Every structure is written in structure tokens, then in C-alpha cells.
């Protein structure tokens, strides 16, 4: 059984106590996937097609979607201890949440921690090559963002410099126009005498 903990953003439906006890006591179902290896997919099978609900601290919809999209994710999962399984699932879900963050809100430390979490869940036996690719794409985007911010700052500095030059040039133009006006002013009768 894989137990996951997810922060609940919105509860769409809940089970009454009797249904919840039956659900949480249901035995873990295992199935064979290519090569005769076993995988844990009881959440996927038990909750397909049902509304989103919270079971043992995890939003079933999130976990179900992970198993739908990546059915072989837990084929090599080795943790037998319930607390370790829960921790692994928490790491996995936290990693996915991190990958969903806006680049603006994502720090380089977040990316380092995401690498650590990825290593942790991979070492626990999860097949997360797809997450590794997503993380690499995110790192590339973060690097491009950094380069873009540097270029943008340089452009702003140049623009400020050009605006200052324009302002200085405007002042020179006004001064030259005033001198030209003084030169063009016709002499009066008194000035000529």
C-alpha cells in the first residue's frame, strides 16, 4: 500500500466514517506488469472513476492521476514500513508540486532540493525518469530566465543612459535655439545709432 500526504486545496466529496474505515482497511492489491515484477496500484484500481476524496491524508485524485499516467511507477518500490512508504509518497508529491511552481517563485535552492527529493524517490524504487526530464527542462528554463533577466537589466541600464543623453541633448537644443533667436533678433533703431 502506498500512502501519500497532500495539502487539501478543496474538498469535493468525503466518505462517511463507515465507508472510510472499510476503504482504509482494504488489503493492498498487487498486479503483475511486464517481466513478472510486482507493482502497487491499489489506489489506482480502488478509486478509478470516483470523485476526489481524502484517504489517509492524501488527495486520492492526485495519486490516482499519477498512477494512471505512469502505471509502472511503483514496480520496483521496496519500502515495507508504512511510515517510509508515506514519506516516499510525500516526497514524490512535493517534488511534483515544486515542478508546478512558477519560475518567478522557484529559487535555485528549490531546484537543489528537488534534485535531492528525486534521488530519494528513485533510490526508494520509484520509476521517475519522466520527472527527471521535467526537472531538467525546468532547470533549463530557470537558466534561460536568469540570462533573460540579466539581458533585461542591461537593456534597462542602456535605455536609462540613452534617456539621459536625450535629456542632455534636449537641453542643448533649447540653449542653441535661444542663442539663435537672440542672433536673429533684428536690431532696433536705437541699437543702430
From TrEMBL:
Keywords: Coiled coil. Residues 19-40 are annotated as: Disordered. Residues 128-179 form a coiled coil. This is MATH domain-containing protein.
Amino acid at each position: 500500500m502506498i500512502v501519500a500526504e497532500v495539502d487539501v486545496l478543496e474538498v469535493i466529496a468525503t466518505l462517511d466514517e463507515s465507508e472510510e474505515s472499510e476503504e482504509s482497511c482494504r488489503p493492498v492489491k498487487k498486479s503483475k506488469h511486464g517481466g513478472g515484477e510486482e507493482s502497487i496500484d491499489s489506489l489506482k484500481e480502488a478509486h478509478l472513476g470516483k470523485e476526489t476524496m481524502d484517504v489517509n491524508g492524501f488527495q486520492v485524485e492526485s495519486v490516482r492521476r499519477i498512477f494512471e499516467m505512469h502505471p509502472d511507477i511503483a514496480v520496483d518500490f521496496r519500502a515495507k514500513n508504512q511510515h517510509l512508504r508515506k514519506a516516499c509518497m510525500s516526497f514524490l508529491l512535493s517534488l511534483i508540486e515544486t515542478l508546478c511552481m512558477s519560475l518567478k517563485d522557484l529559487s535555485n535552492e528549490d531546484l537543489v532540493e528537488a534534485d535531492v527529493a528525486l534521488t530519494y524517490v528513485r533510490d526508494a524504487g520509484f520509476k521517475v525518469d519522466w520527472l527527471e526530464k521535467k526537472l531538467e527542462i525546468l532547470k533549463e528554463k530557470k537558466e534561460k530566465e536568469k540570462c533573460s533577466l540579466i539581458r533585461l537589466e542591461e537593456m534597462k541600464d542602456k535605455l536609462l543612459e540613452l534617456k539621459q543623453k536625450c535629456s542632455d541633448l534636449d537641453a542643448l537644443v533649447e540653449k542653441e535655439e535661444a542663442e539663435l533667436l537672440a542672433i536673429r533678433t533684428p536690431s532696433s533703431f536705437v541699437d543702430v545709432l
